[in-house]
Amino acid sequence: MRQHKHLAALTVSSDISKKARQHAIVMANKQSLIYSTLTDGVDDDWVWLAQIVGYGYTVAEIFDYLLTSPHHLPTILSEKPSNIGIGVAYDNAGRIWMCIVFKETYK
Q1: CA dihedral 70, 100, 22, 29 (to 10 degrees)
Q2: Start and end of every SCP domain (predicted)?
Q3: Cα–Cα distance measured from residue 94 to residue 28, given in angstroms and rounded to the nearest whole number
Q4: Would you give the DSSP letter of residue 77?
Q5: What is the mean pLDDT of the chain?
Q6: Whether the Cβ atoms of residue 10 and residue 97 lie closer than 8 Å to each other
Q7: pLDDT value at position 106?
Q8: What pLDDT, in 10s, does the model give residues 18-62?
Q9: CA-CA distance, 83 to 100, in Å (whole number)?
């Protein structure tokens, strides 16, 4: 979708990938859709951060919601981020809990 809007591809970043994975596990364990403290566990090279969380029984279900959400789509299509981290965890009922962290770094 970003490519169709002529936006730069995002680079996977290890620090925010780890943060996203850990937070997805927290949400799955708590059975609660919550945001993390955004700066926790993120390297000091950022100038802009954003986070999206979601859950569902399929990745397609989660992304269908995010891509039609007036609150989430602007973050996904923002020109600001250069990096992305995605974390996924499953709960006992088979639901997928997802956390996506976006980061713009110093140029």
Answers
A1: 40
A2: 1-100
A3: 10
A4: T
A5: 96
A6: no
A7: 87
A8: 999 999 999 999 999 999 999 999 999 999 999 999 999 999 999
A9: 11
24, 41, 55 from 60: Cα distances, Å: 17, 28, 11
- State if pTM tops 0.85: yes
**Which residues fall within 8 angstroms of residue 92, CB to CB, at 6 or more apart?**
none
Give the tokens for residue 21: 């994975």
How far is the first Cα of the chain from the last one, in angstroms, to the nearest whole number?
24
In the block, residue with structure tokens 């994975």: 21
- CB-based contact 98:91 (threshold 8 Å): no
Residue 26 tokens, joined: 């927290």
% of the chain surpassing 90 pLDDT: 93
